[in-house]
Amino acid sequence: WFERTATFDKMGKIEQEWTSYEKTIALEDNNASPWCNKGIALSKLERYKEALDALEKALSIDESLTAAWQNKAYILGNGFVDDLEKGFISSFIIRFPAKAFGIFGNPILSW
User: Fold this and answer.
1) Structure pTM?
2) What phi and psi values does residue 46 have, to the nearest 5 degrees?
């Protein structure tokens, strides 16, 4: 199922992509990549709260997964959800200082 998702992504079929991630997760719940990709697909569908849940699940499995950090930062940094987590932003800046400015602007000035 995981391989099918790339095809759906290239075709712009986000609903089918998301469904494929669901099936992949059902087969291997402890793999961070499908959880992360599910979060990305849900974000594309503007289902940001659900996307954050999936990205947080991915990070609970593998806290070094860069794509999950970046996509969570994108959702939080662009105000798509109300619960901006300053602790998360601090962690992101420490891990990815060069990318933080592009996502959050100047985070020090916005606090």
Assistant:
1) 0.70
2) 65, 35
